[in-house]
Design a protein that fits this description.
192 residues, two-stranded antiparallel sheet, 6 helices, Rossmann fold, six-stranded parallel beta sheet, alpha/beta
């Protein structure tokens, strides 16, 4: 089976530094031979998770669409912003909805089983969003997703992209290429 990667940023903002960072990671993935599906969470609007709403109406259509994408991909390439030292609400809400079982599912959290994730972050701060990655990694691992032991964070991201969104930091570009190449090689080996 050919492994596939689902790539998205945990931000809705059109000018998001993490969306820009993700594009560089996707380009590195393509160079490494990865099969990548790139989505924007803005195209899958969801209400805040509410168990009463789920009980009354089931999963929203966009949650079902996202869940199907998760099920169809073995890898997750995620560029996640740090909001107040944690993950963004849109990323957590996405995980909360996608984690909910459909009536015909025999196994809980099945769309996270045997997944491998690679994490990146960008932030104007000096830590580059690393604190947000700690919380995201904890959540992902607790629901059954393996996370690559290394990540890439881009501090002072507001100074690291040109007007066309090109990354100006050659060292970080190399770090991204290395992370994504290792991620793809590992994912391919896991899913031979």
């Amino acid at each position: 089976m050919q492994a596939k990667v689902l790539a998205f940023a945990g931000s809705l903002r059109s000018g998001s530094f993490n969306k820009k960072l993700l594009l560089h990671a996707i380009a590195a993935g393509h160079k490494a031979g990865a099969v990548i599906t790139h989505i924007d969470l803005k195209d899958y609007p969801l209400p805040m998770y509410d168990g009463d709403d789920e009980e009354a109406s089931g999963l929203p259509d966009n949650a079902k669409r996202l869940k199907a994408l998760f099920m169809d991909h073995q890898g997750l390439l995620l560029a996640l912003p740090e909001y107040n030292s944690s993950m963004s609400a849109v990323f957590k809400n996405t995980i909360d909805w996608v984690s909910r079982p459909l009536p015909d599912e025999a196994e809980y959290l099945i769309c996270f089983k045997d997944k491998l994730a690679a994490l990146l972050s960008a932030s104007p701060g000096i830590l580059g969003g690393q604190r947000g990655l700690v919380s995201a990694k904890s959540v992902l691992e607790n629901i059954g997703t393996m996370v690559m032991p290394t990540h890439v964070s881009l501090p002072k991201a507001n100074q690291k992209f040109d007007a066309n969104g090109m990354l100006l930091d050659d060292k970080k570009s190399q770090d991204i290429a290395s992370l994504v190449s290792n991620f793809w090689q590992t994912l391919t080996k896991l899913h031979l």
